[in-house]
Amino acid sequence: MIVGTEWLIEATDCEPERLRDESLLRDLFDRVMSDLGLNAIGEVWHKFPGESGVTGMIALTESHLACHTYPEHGTATFNLYCCRTRREWDWESNLGRALCARTVSVTKIERGQGNPKSEISNFKFENSNPESESPNSKSKISNPKSIIQNPKSTAVGGDA
Fold it and tell me: What's the pTM?
């Protein structure tokens, strides 16, 4: 039984100034919620001092939406968890426009204890470390220490 769907999103090579813009990120969250019919029940935002980034989280009746930005690395991470099935949101196009992200990877996980369909899908990676590519794997891994093991997958990498 599927009890929810979780999306883990990483946007890289983003424009640092946009990753410091809390207003822009709030607007982006509003667009996600509007497009997917999500309902906010509370939120917390924090802008770190100086040239640092923003952390934001919105509690939803459907679960949560969160982000953390790292302007010093040109990276933003997002997490959306919904307890009911939702259509896909075009993270790649939307984050490309909003954050000037050059690369966006989306991992979708269908959650549920003992769910045979609970797989990881929609990987989009660019290889930034040639030593991290497994000779038996067709996918490229940008961070070998950031691997989620999938029992249906034969590719395993990283030393977590």
Answer: 0.72
* 83 catalytic residue (yes or no): yes
Choosing from 14, 63, 64, 67, the catalytic residue is: 63
Distance CA 43, CA 41 (A): 7
Is 63 a known active-site residue? yes
Contacts of residue 85, Cβ cutoff 8 Å, sequence gap at least 6: 2, 5
Neighbours of 37 (CB within 10 A): 10
Active site residue 100: no
Q: Which of 46, 64, 82, 83 is catalytic?
A: 83
pLDDT in tens, 81-97: 999 888 899 999 999 99
